[in-house]
Amino acid sequence: MLYKKKILKKYNFLLIDLDGVLFDSKKNMRASWKICRKKFKLKQSFEQYFKYLGLPLNDILKKIGIKKNIKDIVSLYQASSEKKLKLINPYKTVLKTLKILEKKKIKYSIVTSKNKKRALKLIKLNKIKINSIHCASKNKPGKPSRYLIDDAINKNQYIRKKTCFIGDTHIDWTAALNAKVDFIFAEYGYGINQSKYKISIKKFSDILNFIN
User: Fold this and answer.
1) pTM here?
2) Residue range 2-24+89-210, CATH number
3) Which of 2, 125, 169, 197 is the residue whose CA sits 20 to 30 A from 83?
C-alpha cells in the first residue's frame, strides 16, 4: 500500500465505485461493446470506449464521436451486459473485506455510473449488503459531477470529513474533489496512479487501515 500522508485518516462512511474497485468487469464490457459495434456498424474500438470509463454511457458515446442511435446503443449495451453478468467477478479480497466492514458496523454505499438495474443485480448476485446505491440517471448527473456523492452523504446523514470515495479513475478523483471528500485510489483497477492522489491501495482489503 502506498501512503502519501504521514497520519492515516479514519473514516466511518465509505463510498465505493463498482467497476475497477469491487468488480473486474472488463470482459463483460468488451463483450457488450463487441455486440454494439456489430449491430450498429461502429468504427470505435473497445479501447476508445474504455478510455472514458467512469462517465455515464451516454457521455462516453458522445466523447468518442458517436452521434446517431445513442439511445438504441445504450439499450443494447445494457441488455447485453445484463445477460453476461457471469463475466463480472469481484476482486480477490472484496467479499471477505465487505463482511469485515459489516461486522465492524462500518457503513458503505455504492456510487457508480453503471445502470442501476444491472448494478443491483450484480450486488444481489454476490450477496453484498450495501447501505444505499447512487447511479446516474436522466435527472441525476453522473461523475465527475458531485451530485451522486452529495446524494449519498445527505441520504445517509454522515459527516463529509469522515467520508471517503474509493475509485480507480481520474473521473472518480474529480468527482471526489468536486464534492470535497477524500479520495482513495484503487491501484489494481483500470486507471493510472498519479501523484495528486494522496492515498492509494494495492488491494481492496487495504481499506481496513482507514476505518475506525
Assistant:
1) 0.90
2) 3.40.50.1000
3) 169
